[in-house]
Design brief:
With 388 residues, the chain is an alpha+beta fold. The chain folds into two domains: 103 residues, Phosphorylase Kinase, domain 1; 222 residues, Transferase(Phosphotransferase), domain 1 (Orthogonal Bundle). 30% of the residues lie in helices and 14% in strands. The chain contains eleven helices and twelve strands. A five-stranded antiparallel β-sheet has the order 1-2-3-5-4, covered by helices on one side. The chain has a three-stranded antiparallel β-sheet with strand order 6-9-10. Strands 7-12 form a two-stranded antiparallel sheet. Helix 6 packs antiparallel against helix 8. This is Protein kinase domain-containing protein.
Length: 388
């Protein structure tokens, strides 16, 4: 049975942070010295996540194991550093422990027992706009916490939103592998991410800021409310081409029962101009957020058939991009040069080749060996001469 925190009190008193910001140091040595490793929970482009249980406490955690050489280790350490700086927020997955060896890093984090939000929503017949607003508000709180600490996530997508417990309403934001510090006179382009969630400035190779996170939240909101993606094409090249243009066309049928406040929220998040795009604090004060505190008496039920169709396509993309063991990171621009038109081409061989095995020559059986006969008369005669 997987243990999950049931309330804010559980969040405050459990784990190493005790509700405070505490720095986690990475350890040397195998993870198995301190944890029992269980089933695989999932995998992404960077690594594979496993359920693990700490020996001396019996507590359940998630262990994200990443394998990579040279420059890939910089990406691993970046996620470790970013998590260390923002683990005090209840809406962000917290770092608990870390282990590092020559080609491997394992991040031990709190376990979100409910799995990814989208997967849970697709098991239901319908959802409501109120629920979506509630989830988006928590996502905004997580992003606002990061922005207050001069950190942008830069990789938000629907797969990174996790439920704290099964069938619960609390969520956490995970996967900080692309997160970076944003400071005045210290911004630069980013050529990575999931195509349908990246902002136009990322797709166009321009400098990125906190505004890229708000764009991604707008895309997430659009998907949760309608079950369709505003920019997704038949391949990554087509998707990024649409993102570069930044033209948002609302599906009239899908939005027919969605409030005007929700539409306005999405429009302000998907503002093509970075300078006028809504910020996290402004988004938390947007009129649509009032819905998260006021449950309607008879909310409209949004059928999840479209959401299931979208989720299937999302998983197909993620499954193709996911690593087998070794860390993967391909640029967005690569889909404009590769024949597949995909960032992660299907069937691509990316795992580093194994070191060649030492050739072992089988030993010959004893009967195959020939021992030459020796003439011992010479040695015997010499012995006789010496003994005289």
């Amino acid at each position: 049975m997987v243990h999950v925190e049931e309330d804010d009190i559980g969040f405050y008193w459990s784990g190493p942070s005790l509700g405070r910001q505490v720095t986690i140091n990475n350890r040397r040595g195998p993870l198995e010295d301190h944890y029992d490793i269980g089933d695989e929970l999932g995998r992404g482009t960077q690594g594979v996540s496993y359920h693990c249980v700490e020996h001396h406490t019996g507590r359940n955690f998630c262990a994200k194991s990443m394998w990579g050489k040279e420059n890939f280790k910089l990406w691993m350490r970046n996620e470790f550093d970013m998590m260390n700086q923002i683990s005090s927020c209840k809406h962000i997955v917290r770092l608990y422990d870390a282990y590092e060896s020559v080609n491997n890093m394992v991040l031990v984090t709190e376990l979100c027992g409910g799995g990814d939000l989208l997967g849970t929503l697709t098991t239901r017949t319908y959802i409501t706009e109120y629920e979506v607003c509630w989830y988006v508000r928590q996502l905004l709180l997580a992003v606002d916490h990061m922005h207050d600490r001069c950190i942008a996530h830069l990789g938000i997508n629907v797969g990174d939103i996790l439920l704290v417990r099964p069938n619960g309403m609390e969520i956490k934001l995970g996967d900080l592998s692309l997160a970076r510090h944003i400071r005045i006179n210290n911004v630069y382009p980013l050529d990575y991410g999931m195509p349908e969630f990246v902002a136009p400035e990322i797709a166009n190779g321009e400098d990125v800021t906190y505004a890229a996170d708000m764009w991604a939240i707008g895309v997430v909101t659009y998907i949760l409310l309608t079950g369709t993606s505003p920019f997704r094409g038949d391949n990554d090249r087509e998707t990024l081409t649409k993102v570069k243009k930044g033209e948002v066309n609302f599906d009239m049928e899908a939005f027919s029962h969605i409030s005007d406040e929700a539409k306005d929220f999405i429009i302000r998040c998907l503002d093509y101009k970075v300078d006028t795009r809504m910020e996290a604090k402004s988004a938390l004060r947007h009129p649509w957020m009032d819905l998260a505190s006021n449950l309607p008496r008879d909310p409209y039920r949004i059928n999840t058939d479209r959401l299931r169709t979208y989720y299937s396509r999302f998983r197909d993309w993620y499954s193709n991009a996911s690593c087998k063991r070794w860390f993967r990171r391909r640029t967005l621009a690569s889909c404009f040069t590769h024949p597949s038109k995909m960032v992660y081409p299907p069937g691509e061989l990316y795992t580093p080749p194994e070191s060649p095995e030492r050739e072992i020559i089988p030993a010959k059986p004893p009967e195959d060996y020939h021992i030459p006969e020796r003439d011992y008369s010479y040695e015997l005669e010499a012995f006789k001469n010496d003994s005289k």
